[in-house]
Structures are given as structure tokens and as C-alpha cells.
Amino acid sequence: MKLVKTVKCKLQVNIEQAAVLLETLQRFADACNDILCVSQENHTTNKVKLQHLCYRNIKEKYGLQANLVIRAIARVAEATKKKRKQSKPRKFKPTSMSLDQRTFSFNEKRWEVSISTVAGRLKLPLAIGNFQRGLLAGQKPTSATLCYNRRTKEFYINIVVNREVPFPPKGGNVIGVDRGIYNLATTSNGLKFSGRQAIHVRRHYARLRQVLQTKGTDGAQKLLKRLSGKEHRWMTDLNHKISKAIVNSCKPGDVIVMEDLRYIRERIRAIKGQRLFQHSWAFGQLGRFIEYKAAERGIAVVYVDPRHTSQRCPKCSNTARDNRHGHLFRCTSCGFVGHADIVAATNIRQVYFEALADGSPSVGPEAGSTCKPLALAMG
Q1: Where exactly are the structural domains of the chain?
Q2: 100-135 confidence digits (pLDDT tens)
Q3: Do 344 and 309 meet the contact criterion of CB atoms below 8 Å apart?
Q4: Which fold has domain 174-377?
Q5: Is 69 helix (H, G, I), strand (E, B) or coil?
């Protein structure tokens, strides 16, 4: 089984090289914005059609290498397909640039990368540690993304590598994982990760943004800019810690089962005070982190139908809304009492076994997920 992973590496760049990279990023972003206009004028998101419509003009206007123009067209085509439901068109900023095997190469002996720019090829050393070196050792990557952090004024390159990982055999333990807002994750083997701190952080940044936006001064705008992305980075770090703890509690050959929560925001109506947490709930990111960490250790990840997993009694299978009272689960039929999230995780595990017994595949993986459906994951 192939695992696709991105390795983030800092680049060692001098003043002259930084100027060239910034100019290249600016031209790439301007090219993307021009291509976006062509896409909207001709009502197409097909990259082949876009290439016929604007390839020559873009190449002559911005002086980009042929393959950088192709990457710009592909980026616009992909972005417009994802954003077509939004009312406002997307504007591309000079913060990243897609690279392929003709515009990027990696030299393991020198630990450097070669990137195509408007001033020719630049060879840039990687400022990385043993962790990144271990991931890149023996690899021959063919794609990457050049990134510029405007806050720190540093350049990074995200290198995509493919790794062969053993596919998990049958017969391992099955662990159900319930993802939520007040408890970010609860497992059937006894792990529980509170979401109280996440709720506190969300509220803090929401109030701070509201105050600064209301104030509207130049100083407030500068502070908003400095705070941009800080909440997201904090939540990403927390999800990494949770996913690592869950995967470390399993052994190679085990199976992690989660609910398929696609479109849950559209299905659930929240009261006004809970909308902030519902719409900022990073359940998809947590699921993806669990997936790739599990794949590295030979642990399967599958998704099952989420219906009634929080309302069903794990002892007598009685299903009713009245069974759940906040964090407490009390069965109205047999009187079973337990923690609601642990009960949900246990039911998720049970749904997996029922799907296997019926011979029916599970619901497919969530949007953005790379794991396989149940029927394939079990070979």
C-alpha cells in the first residue's frame, strides 16, 4: 500500500535569491488570476480547454517556464471546481507555487533542491533535521509546493513523497473512535480527549476578532493580520497530539473505525451559541491525521454509517433519543448507564462488526480522506 506524505522543509535563502523567488511567486499568482478571468469568461473549469485558450498569452506575458504555466492552469482549474459554489471569485496571492518533476528536483547527497524561477534554476540548501532527512532518504520526489510565509518572511518547500507501508492483516483489535465538540475524541478502548480548552480558545479568538473589527483602526488591522492563522495552527497542533495518542494506543494489524461525518454541518441545526463551535469543528482534519499516522504503522482506518450511534444502547440495542442526557447515557429499556461518548465509540465499533457480518461495505471515506472503504480495507 502506498502512503502519500508531505515533508515540510525550510529553505536557506540569501537576499538575492529571496528577491528572485518573490518575483516568481508574484508572476505565478498574477498568471493564476488572469487564467481565472479566462475561466470565468468562458465558463469552463477544464484544464485542457484553459490551456488551449490562454497558454501562449500567459507564457509570453509573464515569462514563466512552460511547465510553471501548466501548473498555474491546473491550479486554477482545481480551485474553481472546489469554489464554484461561492458567490465571490477567488483571488490568488503570491504565497505558494506548484512544482512538478520538470520545475523541481531533489539532491539527497547535497540535501538541496533545484527550483525553476524567472531567473533560471536556483539551487537552495534545505535547513532540516533528522526527522525530515529520514523521510526524504532514498526518495525521488516528482512534485512539491514552494511556500512563502509573509509573517516570518521565510521560504519553505513542501515535498511530496510516496512510501510503501504494509497493509494490515486480519485478526487485529477493532477500536471505535467517536469525534465530538465537547470531547474531541473518545475511543472504545478508554481514551478521552476533552474539548474544553479548544472551546475556550475558539471563544477567545472570536471575541478578540470582534473587538478589533469593530474598532477598525490601523493598529487593530495590523493586530488582526498578526493573529491570522494563529488559532488554526493551535488547533492543528492539538489534532496532531490527539491523533498520535490514538494511533499509539493501537498495534499493527488493528482497525480504527470512525463515523463518516461528511455534510454533518448541513444536517445538524445548532442554536446560536453553538454555531461557532459547529462551524469551526476540525473533525475532518483529525480524521486525516489519524489516517496517515495509522497507515505508517500498518493500522487500517475505515468509516461507518453514523446514524443512531449516540442513541443506541450497547447492551440491549434499544434506540431512542431519550437514552442520551448530555454527557450521560441511560437506556430507557434496560437501565444501562454509561458515558455518552464512550457508548457512541462502542456502538461505532459494533456497527463495523455488523457491516462485516452482513457482507456490506461501509460508507465511503470522508471528503479529502485517503483511506479505503470497509470492503477494500479488509482485503
Answers
A1: 1-164, 174-377
A2: 999 999 999 999 999 999 999 999 999 999 989 998
A3: yes
A4: Nucleotidyltransferase; domain 5 (3.30.420)
A5: helix
